Amino acid sequence: MSDITSGARWRKSSYSGGGDQQACVEVAQTPDVTAVRDSTDPAGPVIAVPHGSWAAFLDDAVVR
């Protein structure tokens, strides 16, 4: 886990099925960034983006 997400509370979508074998992304909010990682590799790489950029991504990605 990277230092930027140390102690972060990770969550994944309720639409992911919730099982341990479900491949999904997880997100965590830190004071500085929104972090994204692969749920099947919690010790793997993390993408960290500014909160505003994450919000813009969600606005564009949401199904209306």
UniProtKB/TrEMBL annotation:
Pfam families (alphabetical): DUF397 (PF04149)
Region feature (Disordered): 1-23
Domain DUF397: 8-61
Superkingdom field: Bacteria
Official protein name in the record: DUF397 domain-containing protein
The species this protein was found in: Amycolatopsis pretoriensis
